[in-house]
Write a structure and sequence with these properties.
Blueprint: H1 4-11, H2 16-42, E1 50-52, E2 72-74, E3 77-79, E4 82-84, E5 87-89, E6 92-94, E7 100-102, E8 108-110, H3 119-122, H4 131-158, H5 160-178, H6 184-212, H7 228-235, H8 238-251, H9 257-268, H10 271-277, H11 282-287, H12 291-305, H13 316-332, E9 334-335, E10 341-342, H14 353-376, H15 384-393, H16 395-405, H17 411-431, H18 436-463, H19 469-493, H20 503-519, H21 534-543
Antiparallel strand pairs: 1-8, 2-3, 4-7, 5-6, 9-10
Length: 557
Amino acid sequence: MVNFDSVLVDIGEIGRWQLMVCLLCWIPPFFGGVHVLMFSFTGLEPPNGFRCKIPECDGPQFGFNDFGDIFERKDDEIDYCTYRQYTKTDQGCVFNGSSYDKCSSDEYVYADFQFEETVVTEWDLVCGQGGKVAWVGSVYMFGLMVGSYLCGIMADKYGRKLSLLFSILISSVASLLGAFMPEYFSYTATRFFTAIGAQGIFLSPFALTVEVVGANPVLPFLPWPVQYKTLAGVMIQAPFAVGMAGLSWLAMYIKDWSTLQMVASIITFSQLIFWWFTPESPRWLLAAGKDDKAKVIIEKAAKMNRRQTYNFTNQSNDVELESADKQTESTKGSIDAEGTQYGVRDLFHPTIRKISLVLMVCWPVVTLGYYGITFSLSSLSEDIFINNIIGSLIEIPAYIIVSLFMDSWGRKPLFSLSLLISGICCIVCGILDEGALRTSLAMFGKFFASSSFALVYMYTAELLPTTIRSSGVGVCSLMARIGGISAPQIALTLPKTSAGPGSPFFVMGACSVAGGLLALLLPETLGSTLPTTMKDIDDIKANAKPIWKCYTGPKKA
């Protein structure tokens, strides 16, 4: 039977056509980075303080510094939601009391900070309303979870290209509408719909990228094996980081939240130009029985790669039979070669129970570490723009290193080490006071958090048999959202409690270290074929290379 891998052998497994497709697929993830970091600026809380209106002392126009330092201090932290008790005199208010009152007014004034206005200052999301800020981030993460499910189904049923169009439109339109929302709840709703599309503008290009590149070619200039498919699958996350850096640069010059979101959202519509030139996945077209459309794209690919066109003349019947077979199999469920039907409950089959449980812990840990550090970058020092630019761009060398060594050293050591080092960096950050060393360690932690994020999808797919791979990755992705939804609460809300400003880093660090140690219980998959049955998992465990050795290729008989 004909499959797309055999087609790639004829038309070229890597060539100018694949390069064009990969470059086009890099555009949407760039804007995914813009969407995810948007609220870090539009929802920035004023770091230099604020105070409420004191009815008997303030007039219609009142300023932050009208009465000097009148706030209560707790463990060297200023509580701006309090003010010293005062005595009313003919000359005004004298703040000479020994105790403090809580703010009761709904009006606030803010000290100068990096923005002229954010949603926090416009809607006074401080004091009793301060908890709402982190919930915007959590709702966004919930939207990513919905997007994973919805856009994944759309991509499988209607194709990668149509799913991508839906994702571009819903993310861009919702983000643009958000710039004009008059209050908190409507704005939060737009962030939810933006997230649904933002997940899709990464998932569809990722699937398309790995589907058009052959599995055999390796980079020719390295003494160890690095597959082009590995490079393409990992490096598609680089434009996501560039997008976050690009928004950080734009925010340096646009200091009003509504204007910033409006300008950035309008720019995201430029994806539609590149979408027009992006082809559908020929692999998906063949699997869906759309052979004529697949043939047109394959012929264009062969011409661009200067290779011979695949001969469909004698293969059309086989292709139809293969498509029919796949449709028949899909109606029967996930059945292995021995006729045994499997489902989600078989993630706890004795053969893979330990693997499944470890992965279900590691996924939320990875997501918490990555997004938790990302959301914490604005609090590391006063220069929030440079912090976010460096914290974003530092991901790129992490992806390069993962790409270069995961096919030689292996998935397990890189994944475990990334979690351990990221966790240690976070714990030390929690101990240190604000300064260059603390910021540098946070960046180092982000580097390794990005490494683990890049590895977890591929490693998980290689650890689960075909019969439950899709459902297994889906369950793990669902578990990951626990970490994602928790990240804004831990990064933004926890520092305001009695736990102190270093507490988010302690939590993220402890979780990462625990995840890194648990990852040592997973088998190495490098050098093994993708498992099809439970027996294949046993073979992977038996033949896994030691963690300290490098892979040199298949053993000779």
